[in-house]
Amino acid sequence: MFTLNRLSLIGRIPEHPHIFIKGNNERVATLCLHTYLDEYTQRHLRQYNVFIDNPKIIEYVDTFLSAGDMIYVEGQLEPMPVQDSAHPDHVQENWISISADQGLLLLLHTSSQILQKSSSRLSENFH
Length: 127
Description:
Layout: E1 7-12, E2 18-21, E3 27-38, E4 43-52, H1 55-64, E5 70-81, E6 92-98, E7 104-109, H2 112-126
Parallel strand pairs: 4-6
Antiparallel strand pairs: 1-5, 2-3, 3-4, 5-6, 5-7
């Protein structure tokens, strides 16, 4: 029997991505992704955590992504255990994993703050 573990989401990043350095000097990134059933009224929020250990995608995240951006993420759904004293064996958080050999992350729309900063820099350069 074959199985497929692939998740594709479009959502907004509520805060800046976090870049960490592991013990072997490899960089990893984490970010939070919010999706809504209705984007305009922002009803029915779903929150996903994204773990990235693909060096090229981490560089992209570090360079281009910031709070408020809309992104497309494709990766594997990975259950991660969460410490809970009441139910230590049953509590899990779902993470989307983008590893070195699979996964995808694309910037779909930048936040208005970034666009305003970019346009002011452009106007300074052309004056």
